[in-house]
Amino acid sequence: MFSKLKQKLYFPIAWYFRFFAVIKLNRWKPKIIVITGSSGKTTLLHLVESQLGDIARYSHHANSSYGIPFDILGFKRQDLTINEWIGLFLLAPFKFFNTTPKEKIYVVETDCDRTGEGKFLAEFLKPDIVIWTNVSRTHAAGFDRSVSDQSTVEETIAFEFGHFIRNAKEMVIFNIDNELISNQLSENSQYRIISVSKKDLKNYQVSIHGTEYQIENKIYKFPYLLPENVYYSLASCLDLCKYLKIEIDDKFSRFIVPPGRNSIFKGIKNTTIIDSSYNANYDSMEQILTMVDQIRSNDKWLIISDMLEQGQGEKDQHEKVARLLLDINANRIIVMGPRSMKYIYPILKNHLSKNVILEQFIQPRQVLDYLRKEISGSEMLFFKGSRFLEGVIEHLLADKNDINKLCRREKIWKIRRKKWDL
């Protein structure tokens, strides 16, 4: 009952905050650069920020119909709890009087969690430039009711994201290798089109020490683990800089990988932790597991958790992950969560090599207890999925100062992890 009420009130309440945000946005008048897509948006935002620096303002931790108006109005939410809402409602009418930011460029990350969100945000922001790199089944549950007999979930999601380019005024940078994106482009568009294709990626290498991309005759090195498809974000960032006539820092020296996106930490007992716990859908699972498969380790453990909000395709998506795992080089695979146990574990149990140790758990605390007991030293522990894996990682870090580098540090998430005995 409460969930249905939240769904009905989602956009009416969002309109309230958007009304005041529009007033402030019209006073500010920045060039608006929208970064959108099903995944990888925050990494691309960080890549762009590493190049544009302080000439632009960035919508960090804000990408929704609520988050973006809050960011424009200057709200800094601290704990994401219900008690904050009263203050937000009362302060909103006064926030648009505040001084507008000095930056003349606004780089904003936008997501589409449900039908109508792309239209809501695109008509609100009216972007000058749009960068769109991918489409997949992230938040697919929010689109199930909108899928017609003539379209797939992926096509419905792509149409929603397509509102951003249909409202673009100046330029669109897009992944031409993705047919779902290409189909949303209009032949009669007034904006300039720049396409990004993987045919321009000449070489890709990844190891525990970092990642290299060769684009034409230039090599870009990062001290982070980045999947091959981050190439689309890298190339899009470079194209944006060229268009804006920004001098490019080839070393991307100011780039910092966002929390929960393949961060590397030292763990207890001399283990190496790869933290990809921020979120998961099949496309990101495929990209990240393919990357991890290329990293050499004498004892590689995969801790895989549920993919949430997959809607009616939940079974199919998890079974695809299971078949993907069958070909990944690992010493142990640990699956966690009701969906992973129901759909992934049976396939692995019947077809996984007998040389690979397989375990399943329903709760994150059970995974933590198992890892503490079983690791002997020097293992590489790779975490991917939802359901509080960051809470498991938190207790395995060698340096407790690294806890602040994990995702979901807000008070509401601490409360939820505590309920799960984390």
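the 2nd protein, sequnce then structure:
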Amino acid sequence: MNGPSADRPTGAGPVAGVAEPVARDVLRICAPNPSPMTLSGTNSYLVGSGSARALIDPGPDDAAHRAALRASLPPGTRIEAILVTHAHRDHSAGAGALAREWGAPVLAFGRCCAGRSPTMAALAAAAGGTGGPAGEGAGTMLGGGEGVDRGFAPDRMLADGEDLAGAGWRLTALHTPGHMGNHLSFEMDGLLFTGDLALAEITTVISPPDGDLVQFLDSCRRLAARGRRRLLPGHGPAVADGRTRLTALAAHREARSGEILAALEARGPATARELAERIYAGLGPGLLPAAARTVLAHLIALAETGAVTANGPPSPTARFAVTRARNAPLAP
């Protein structure tokens, strides 16, 4: 999370527990889990116009939120599919109880470590990842794993580009890793449900090995190329011009990498935390750890291009320095 940036949102912000129509056949219900990281709370979306609805992001495991979702359904309708953008607990933890209540399958790209890039999978393993049934261990040296729903297991895994349809709704699943390897966005009639990839008011946290800056940039550019879609994100209000917002998010990350390189050149080798303290001057202490994790994601991406080196494996305690390949591109 990096704070406010360009391309401001449109419309009123979400209100917890209130079903708000935000597009044709789309209701937004915000969960009662506000925080600096979740803004007003996690947005769940009920989609469709027929006798059954799709639910995008069930939100946290919270009885009040389940009751709000239930009350938001028109009389005689039900939830027939639960779609999860990614396996962070504020988005996925409520899936199990809702699946039992409605007899609806849980659909997602995969478990919490699905979709990791080879770079991040290798870093996690080298840092002491536990492996586990799905390689869930993030590793003690690399850190990460904030809010990860390690027990999340969808009933069915969705492929990139897969079309989904039900009673009065049709969506396309798009694999958009970056914030998390198993992250999906969903497209419908000029709308993009972007989970935590693209938010209206802040830039999302990218925390290795779950977050990957190179993947994030690729995903933003991919969605931007789909044209002027309206964004319905996992937190906060909608964004009318999604292409402009997505392009700005990618440009912001490129600029941040430039700031990191400039800071290393000016004051010499540093850790991710030291760089975050220099670059994010005035950021509250509660948000500084998240900023340091995102700086680490930038440093790992820059190390891949040869622009920086570290005095050991990439980790929160490693010290990074600029190499002579200072102007290497961040990503192809």
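The helical segments are 63-72, 89-92, 95-102, 118-126, 213-224, 242-267, 272-279, 288-305. Residues 1-10, 130-140 have pLDDT under 50 and may be disordered.
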